[in-house]
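Allow me, if you will, to draw on your knowledge of protein folds for a short while. I have a record of one protein: its chain in single-letter code and its fold written as discrete structure tokens. I remain grateful for any guidance, and I place the record below:
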Amino acid sequence: MSFEVHELLDRLAGQMRREIAPAVDDEYQRTQTHMAGVILERLAREAALGERHRAAETTDIAPLISVLDELIGGEQTSSPAVPDDVRASLAHLRGDLSVMSLSSLVEALYRWGPDGPVAVAALDAIRRVLRRDIDRRMEIAG
């Protein structure tokens, strides 16, 4: 019988909380054992959902790049008014389709001017992607 990593972590978490922690006499150690089970349970959820979440993240970022290209300008069509750091951050995002890569772009947009119509539209599009990322993280936190 073979188990996936998330299944093994979940089983171990349950054992720690239901069997091992209650058998520990010292209250502090019992609490620590219970919390270790809680942490293992979270790791099990993360292992079970991780691949699906990474795929969803890439699926969210790809269309965002198209929106940002229309707003800011693509690799060949960027307006001279767009600061170099905004262009560089967007280029970095093209190579790394992850939510973490959005941070430098968000920072660059705020430096450029968060009240400008292009920056406002770009930040709104980014916020929608970040909201979906938060929802996925909350699924893990359960």
